[in-house]
């Protein structure tokens, strides 16, 4: 959105106190914040701080969208999605966040909702917001991807990022990226004063769970009733991080039963009869543990899957748990010499049909591994690119083409790539209505003096029309050729003229030994001694560097075949 510098900026003026109070009130009401947080996000002396804190899009729009500066002050303001570090530069470059790039996300998301994008860190850390955007899909689509479905497309339409031109309007160059923050534990929240508790953001997962909304989306199935009247929470946005609690033994037992139902809906459903009987330990580790919910909703709130362990349940042992499930009719057991075997399962049980799928430990782990593998491959690709040499062909307006570039409103002293020239040409012929009506592939060059002069050769009549590709080719041929050589980690070098190829010749010397001669590598920023040393290692041969015959300034590398 802000890939280019902002144009037509009006002169800045201090915000009157009354206008600041109105803005603060809008922020507090829009995002359901306390007045204290409103003062933090709409502070006194907005202009003197020089950091853009809020923006709107489109004429007449009154929607206040926070910038990354604002989110760094109050990260909990918006729901979040996390993505691997290798994706962040692509977002800064103007790309939207794709569904496969989402590793973690807040629950209860819906299309067009404002969200923040963070860099992924392993639990319990959560990275700082680095981008702001709108959801392109619902939470259900992301959950399908979490479960391993091949879901593609955009997850977030990015509006503003760290290091874009809106960010550059502030003091961002002097600021360090905040360190990842820890997920707040329940014990810490309970130790806060009443006043602090009012200011503590409790939106997102925690808010919707405590009032009963969307609980099944996290755990699946029927949830245990909370004891007592619950905690009255202050409304907030569907924002950020879960507040973790300790599960009761009843909660753990419920989660383990939900894990069995999940397994019966998925992996156990397709298991062939010859697979049975299955030892209890194998059944437990292969089917129950991977199907545990990634986040568990208990009596006291939300907890992570690490607490869902048989020792913390009311059953205490795997054998007791399986017997309880067999009594319910979900599976069939057989005891043999003190060991318990699972002889059958019943996916058609009504409890299995009424169970709502949840995000499992296995799916989260698989997605995390996939993201880490993708990040590793991208890092390896970046490492490989560090030694790569990039050569870009450029052209500069020259001779008869200068007048055409002036007519197109372009700088005649700049250098252009072929895609740049094509874009200028297409815009020009469309605006001048030079495309032939009968044959769209032809351009009526004779109707425009500047274009006709740019494509005409010496002693040639001005053509009435010409094919589009031929017209482009002639414009390019009449421009002055340049080239740019770039090596990762070094400054680019631009030179006039076409880039010269590297010459590699093989000569047979005395004793019928072959010698490979390499020359013309200087334009590619290669040093003769370094090239000779690298070839010596790669080819396991003797190498030498000598002046090129007839050109004392150029060098030649010889690779000598050895026995």
From TrEMBL:
Where is composition skewed (Basic and acidic residues) in this entry?
367-386
| Name of a matching Pfam family | PUA_elF2D
Q: Which CDD domains match?
A: eIF2D_C, PUA_eIF2d-like
* Chain positions covered by the region annotation Disordered: 184-203, 215-239, 352-386
Composition bias, Polar residues: 224-236
Where exactly are the transmembrane stretches of this chain?
Answer: none
The cross-references to InterPro entries, in alphabetical order and at most eight, read: EIF2D (IPR039757), eIF2D_SUI1 (IPR039759), Pre-PUA (IPR041366), PUA-like_sf (IPR015947), PUA_eIF2d-like (IPR048248), SUI1 (IPR001950), SUI1_dom_sf (IPR036877), SWIB_eIF2D (IPR058886)
Domain of life, source organism: Eukaryota
Name of the protein in its database record = Eukaryotic translation initiation factor 2D
């Amino acid at each position: 959105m802000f890939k280019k510098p902002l144009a037509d900026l009006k002169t800045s003026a201090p915000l009157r106190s009354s206008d600041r109070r109105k803005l603060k009130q809008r922020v507090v009401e829009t995002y359901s914040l306390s007045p204290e947080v409103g003062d933090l996000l709409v502070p006194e002396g907005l202009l003197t701080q020089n950091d853009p804190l809020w923006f709107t899009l489109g004429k007449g729009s009154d929607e206040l969208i926070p910038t990354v500066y604002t989110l760094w002050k109050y990260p909990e303001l918006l729901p979040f999605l996390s993505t691997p570090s290798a994706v962040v530069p692509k977002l800064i470059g103007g790309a939207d966040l794709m569904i496969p790039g989402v590793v973690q996300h807040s629950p209860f998301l819906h299309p067009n909702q404002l969200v923040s994008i963070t860099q992924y860190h392993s639990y319990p850390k959560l990275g700082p917001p680095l981008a702001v955007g709108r959801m392109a899909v619902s939470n259900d689509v992301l959950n399908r991807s979490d479960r391993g479905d091949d879901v593609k497309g955009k997850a977030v339409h990015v509006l503003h990022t760290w290091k874009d031109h809106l960010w550059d309007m502030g003091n961002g160059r002097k600021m360090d990226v905040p360190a990842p923050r820890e997920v707040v534990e329940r014990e810490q929240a309970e130790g806060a004063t009443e006043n602090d508790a009012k200011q503590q953001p409790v939106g997102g997962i925690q808010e919707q769970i405590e009032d009963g909304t969307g609980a099944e989306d996290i755990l699946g199935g029927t949830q245990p009733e909370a004891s007592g009247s619950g905690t009255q929470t202050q409304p907030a946005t569907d924002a950020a991080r879960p507040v973790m609690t300790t599960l009761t033994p009843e909660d753990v037992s419920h989660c383990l039963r939900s894990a069995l139902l999940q397994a019966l809906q998925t992996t156990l459903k397709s298991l062939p009869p010859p697979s049975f009987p299955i030892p209890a330990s194998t059944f437990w580790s292969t089917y129950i543990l991977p199907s545990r919910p990634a986040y568990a909703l208990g009596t006291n709130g939300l907890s992570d899957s690490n607490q869902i362990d048989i020792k913390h349940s009311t059953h205490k042992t795997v054998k007791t748990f399986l017997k309880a499930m067999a009594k319910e009719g979900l599976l069939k057991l057989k005891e043999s010499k003190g060991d318990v075997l699972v002889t059958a399962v019943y996916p058609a049980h009504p409890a299995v049909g009424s169970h709502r799928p949840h995000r499992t430990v296995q799916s989260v782990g698989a997605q995390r591994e996939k993201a880490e593998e993708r990040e590793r491959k991208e890092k390896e690709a970046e490492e490989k690119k560090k030694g790569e040499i990039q050569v870009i062909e450029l052209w500069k307006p020259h001779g008869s083409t200068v007048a055409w570039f002036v007519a197109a409103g372009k700088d005649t002293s700049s250098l252009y790539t072929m895609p740049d020239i094509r874009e200028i040409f297409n815009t020009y012929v469309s605006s001048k209505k030079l495309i032939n009506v009968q044959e769209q592939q032809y351009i009526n060059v004779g109707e425009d003096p500047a274009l006709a002069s740019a494509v005409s050769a010496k002693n040639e009549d001005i053509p009435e029309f010409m094919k589009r590709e031929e017209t482009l080719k002639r414009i390019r041929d009449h421009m002055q050729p340049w080239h740019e050589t770039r090596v990762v980690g070094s400054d680019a070098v631009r030179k006039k003229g076409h880039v010269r190829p590297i010459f590699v010749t093989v000569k047979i010397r005395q004793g019928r030994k072959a010698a490979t001669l390499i020359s013309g590598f200087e334009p590619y920023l290669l040093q003769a001694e370094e090239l000779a040393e690298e070839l010596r290692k790669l080819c396991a041969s003797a190498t030498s560097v000598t002046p090129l015959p007839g050109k004392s300034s150029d060098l030649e590398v010889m690779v000598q075949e050895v026995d």
